[in-house]
């Protein structure tokens, strides 16, 4: 008779296989912990982004509004030696449309152009609260351009200047550069450098003649 071998103890082998080893348990725990931390981190990031978005929508800075309300041009002479003599005074209103933000005007500088050529630069006079404008506030200030400057005009531009003398009205562009900050309660943030462009039709009143009054002009602000 052939020798018979005892059958293997399959029950014990199955029981041993069904019991997870310590390494497998450790790996599974680490995986679950990492997965939980990752989900928590994603939720925190999403929550922070939602808070930032809501705050941005609520307090997002809005550009101020500028209007030149009056302009007085009492001298605008162009001599044969290409010297332009001028005396121009502007009255300007600045409006802050923000409901929660105040505006600090750190630097406001205006440049005056005729025929695309800059003939004068001046700092704008801003007399209120050390340049701090209240929320939903409207303030007045002025800019004075006075003096003389060598300005080279070609023949067509000289003809346009003579036409301005005849009509007693001159097209003058004023570009205003700003350095501003915003203030929310006790917090100040940001430095912004918007630019304003005011395209003016300014009547010349040097001889006391009756001329059409200056029309208030809105300036375009690139924020």
From TrEMBL:
Q: Where in the cell is it found?
A: Membrane
| The UniProt record lists the keyword Transmembrane helix | yes
Its GO CC terms are:
plasma membrane
Q: Where are the transmembrane segments?
A: 37-59
Q: Which InterPro entries match?
A: NDR1-like
**Which keywords does this chain's UniProt record carry?**
Membrane, Transmembrane, Transmembrane helix
Instruction: Set out the biological process GO terms recorded for this chain's protein.
Output: defense response to other organism
Entry superkingdom: Eukaryota
What name goes with this protein? Answer: Late embryogenesis abundant protein LEA-2 subgroup domain-containing protein
Name the source organism. Answer: Vigna mungo
Identify the taxonomic lineage of the organism of origin. Eukaryota, Viridiplantae, Streptophyta, Embryophyta, Tracheophyta
């Amino acid at each position: 008779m052939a020798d018979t071998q005892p059958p293997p103890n399959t029950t014990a082998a199955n029981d041993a296989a069904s019991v997870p080893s310590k390494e497998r348990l450790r790996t599974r725990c680490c995986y679950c912990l990492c997965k939980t931390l990752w989900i928590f981190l994603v939720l925190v990031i999403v929550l922070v982004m939602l808070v930032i978005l809501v705050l941005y929508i609520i307090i997002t800075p809005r550009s101020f509004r500028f209007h030149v309300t009056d302009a007085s041009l009492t001298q605008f002479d162009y001599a044969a030696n290409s010297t332009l003599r001028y005396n121009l005074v502007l009255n300007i209103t600045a409006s802050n449309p923000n409901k929660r933000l105040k505006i600090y005007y750190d630097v406001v500088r205006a440049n005056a152009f005729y025929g695309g050529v800059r003939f004068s630069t001046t700092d704008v006079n801003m007399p209120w609260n050390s340049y701090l404008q209240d929320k939903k506030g409207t303030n007045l200030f002025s800019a004075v351009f006075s003096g003389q400057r060598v300005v080279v005009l070609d023949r067509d531009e000289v003809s346009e200047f003579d036409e301005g003398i005849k009509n007693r009205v001159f097209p003058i562009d004023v570009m205003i550069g700003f350095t501003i900050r915003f203030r929310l309660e006790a917090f100040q943030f940001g430095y912004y450098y918007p630019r304003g462009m005011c395209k003016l039709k300014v009547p010349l009143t040097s001889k006391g003649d009756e001329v059409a009054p200056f029309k208030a002009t809105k300036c375009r602000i690139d924020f």
